[in-house]
Structure prediction request, 144 residues.
Amino acid sequence: MTVLENLELGSFMTEAKRRRNETLDWVYNIFPRLRERRNQLAGTLSGGEQQMVAVGRGLMSRPKLLMLDEPSLGLAPILVQEVFKSLERVNQEGVTIFLVEQNVKHTLTIATHAYVLENGRIVMEGKGVDLLNNSHVKKAYLGI
Prediction:
């Protein structure tokens, strides 16, 4: 399937289908590379571009909450920055993001609220920037 076909799959509910073209433009503005590659087979894209397609497909349903599990996993550092920048933009445009991510520094930099889990238990919570400056988080997760 092409990038465009993948994105369209995310917009089959009635309201999303009605607003498909508008939403597609929104997704393309967030991920300009997808507009360039809209007719390319999605399976031939780089890992970062495939991650953009996956997030874009989720956004096509016009969600109030977008849940993501490790969106930066396996990506080159430059693409990690691009993915986080895009997620920040999506959030600023009104979509709540629930993010599970091991890239602590990037995550806490953009997180409004964060939880630190150890052995499946919440051991800390608070504003992302506050946790980023916490001595335990620095030592245990950032190697500082």
The chain is about 55% helix and 15% strand. The CA atoms of residues 109 and 129 lie 6 Å apart. The two ends are 44 Å apart (CA to CA). Residues 77-92 form the longest helix (16 residues).
